[in-house]
Amino acid sequence: MQLAFCLYKYFPFGGLQRDFLRIALACQARGHTIRVYTLEWRGDVPAGFDLVRVPVRAWSNPRRYRKFSAWVDADLARRPAGCVIGFNKMPGLDIYYAADPCYEEKARTLRNPLYRLGGRYRHFAAWERAVFAPASRTDILMISSVQQPFFMRHYGTPAERFHLLPPGIAPDRRAPVDAPAIRAAFRAEFGLRDDDFLLAQIGSGFKTKGLDRSLLALAALPEALRRHTRLIAIGDDDPRPFQRQAKALGLDERVAILRGRDDIPRFLLGADLLIHPAYSEAAGIILLEALVAGLPVLTTDVCGYAHYIAEADAGQLIAAPFAQENLNAALAAMLADTGARVHWSQHALAFADKADIYSLHERAADFILSHAHATSETA
């Protein structure tokens, strides 16, 4: 069966992009053909994928996305697919993979009311409504239950259209038997002494992930801790605003901001703490990647996967409404308490051995293929 996957941009280091690729490969492995519609593709193209770079341009992203949807609709009319799966919100989808939080909720709680008068808001609100409105026939694959009430509140989406998936941690994120040797080599490479602390913040979209909050918390550490603590942030985003902030806070020599890379497991094993004080996060796969690596986590409870950190007793959550002083105090306490970090690490690894946090991509493929077959039988 021909399956069509739609996403605006593919790059190797985004969580949404990695999920798309693993789900598409799982469908391909079961004998189905994969067509991908995208505006931009960075990285290798898997063998057998029919990659369609949609040739539309516009002066703004909303206008470009509207042209993208129109072009894809026209192409699907000429070359139909058994199922159309979207990884960004847009009209015409059979299945939407809900990696992003509710836009309407963010617009109403994190933005000035005047924001909702603009064209950008009108576009993204309309595209979200096309997926979640009661009249829509799009089924929704949820990666966390946290966002579902927001969609139902703003759009009245019927509950039966939501389908919750378990997380899907890649096996290479688990701590290997030689984790201590990898950690020692990593810390030697980055010039970290035994009494130095390394904070890791990993994920594209530095603003949404709360990198500004992390810098403030690092700057607020007591001097005895701060001079032994470094922060490495990794992601595909513009680092300049945060480099300026670090400089203004006197943290130039304590902070490094790196582009996305494929050796993240080394950072998870080499760090002392994952810090992830996100403003909004539908899931937060990096929280679980840290957990299965045995790395204690400090995060905000608005993240969809934050509850796993609490269930595993693998770190601390900053409760909403967020207060910077709470993050500052929690960071200082976690770094100062070696025994607690050992406790959190051990509990994380024990949780990783028993929890169903690995099967997302196979379960998503199950649903896509079941949906496609059901549709073909009733057509």
Descriptive overview:
The chain folds into two domains: 2-166 and 359-378, Glycogen Phosphorylase B (Rossmann fold); 171-354, Glycogen Phosphorylase B (Rossmann fold), CATH 3.40.50.2000. 45% of the residues lie in helices and 16% in strands. It has 16 helices and 15 strands. Helix 1 packs across helix 16 (360-378), helix 6 packs across helix 11 and helix 8 (211-219) packs across helix 14. The longest helix has 19 residues, at 360-378. It starts with a strand and ends with a helix. The model has no long low-confidence stretch (mean pLDDT 96).
Compact summary:
This protein has 379 residues and is an alpha/beta fold. It has 16 helices and 15 strands.
Write the layout of secondary structure elements.
Layout: E1 2-6, E2 9-10, H1 15-29, E3 33-38, E4 40-41, E5 50-53, H2 61-78, E6 83-86, E7 95-98, H3 103-109, H4 119-132, E8 139-142, H5 148-155, E9 162-164, H6 179-189, E10 197-202, H7 206-209, H8 211-219, H9 223-226, E11 229-234, H10 240-248, E12 255-258, H11 264-270, E13 273-276, H12 285-293, E14 297-300, H13 306-312, E15 315-318, H14 324-336, H15 338-354, H16 360-378
Parallel strand pairs: 1-3, 1-6, 2-4, 3-5, 6-7, 7-8, 8-9, 10-11, 10-13, 11-12, 13-14, 14-15
Helix pairs in contact: 1-16, 6-11, 8-14
Report the oligomer: single chain
Instruction: Give the mean pLDDT.
Output: 96
| Poorly predicted runs of 5 or more residues | none
Sheet of most strands: 7 strands, parallel
Secondary-structure content class: alpha/beta
Counted by DSSP, the helix tally is 16
Q: What name goes with the CATH superfamily of the largest domain?
A: Glycogen Phosphorylase B
Helix proportion range: 40-55%
The domain tally reads 2
What is the straight-line distance between the termini?
14 Å
Shape: globular
CATH architecture type of the largest domain: 3-Layer(aba) Sandwich
Spatial strand sequence of the major β-sheet = 5-3-1-6-7-8-9
The Cα radius of gyration reads: 21 Å
As for the CATH topology of the largest domain, it is Rossmann fold
**In percent terms, what proportion of residues is strand?**
15-25%
Number of strands: 15
CATH classification, class level of the largest domain = Alpha Beta
